[in-house]
């Protein structure tokens, strides 16, 4: 098995995407996806896939370690998931994390795979996947879901500052994985879970998200705007907001990023 190659014909035949664009090297698949999404003729879902990124982006000012062996792609979607009203937006983002979590769990049965609010995926307490959802102005209402999954890029070779906090599938179970198989599982899982969200609402997925939650019961620090909040995580409320028991009582947060948890 090639640890950093994709079977592009197989992906194109999968029936999961309308258009596939592959790049050996790209600054960021999300940036390329934003340019594509501005084109009226684009058939969605469209997938931008890269073997390597030179400027992979994470949320906020984070960067994404983007070497061959990692799975890095952006999915451009319109139509059904894009028709969700603003009230369903948090569900959309949370469900993306749940879908990836389930797909990765099917490839790595031995690991404890969990979602960290809102949609990071962790394996055995280390980050294995990050998701960056954007809808830039020229994207014609389409959404760009950028996903990075550490698959065959072992963290033994990673920059030192990442080694203790992140992991890859190959580090978790000691074996290489077929990137095309992992990608197909993720695309299939996203398709299925977003359809469920559209047809049955977030309430039909809430319990499954809660069962996969990494933070519930733990003390977390959340940065929300200029404020930092510390409290015990009580899970998510019915809309997907993070619930914390803080010294000021029970508070719910619709946005923010987790800075630490113990
Ligand atoms: O954890 C995060 O902060 C989100 C990381 C998202 C990384 C992926 S890799 C593919 C896509 N292209 C990017 O530049 N970023 C996303």
From TrEMBL:
InterPro entries: aa-tRNA-synth_II/BPL/LPL (IPR045864), Biotin_CoA_COase_ligase (IPR004408), BPL_C (IPR003142), BPL_LPL_catalytic (IPR004143), Transcriptional_repressor_C (IPR008988). It comes from the Bacteria. Residues 12-198 form the BPL/LPL catalytic domain. GO terms for cellular component: cytoplasm. Its EC number is 6.3.4.15. One of its GO terms (molecular function) is biotin--[biotin carboxyl-carrier protein] ligase activity. It catalyses: biotin + L-lysyl-[protein] + ATP = N(6)-biotinyl-L-lysyl-[protein] + AMP + diphosphate + H(+). Keywords: ATP-binding, Biotin, Ligase, Nucleotide-binding. Pfam families: BPL_C, BPL_LplA_LipB. Transmembrane segments: none annotated. SUPFAM superfamilies: C-terminal domain of transcriptional repressors, Class II aaRS and biotin synthetases. This is biotin--[biotin carboxyl-carrier protein] ligase. It comes from Anatilimnocola aggregata. The gene is birA_2.
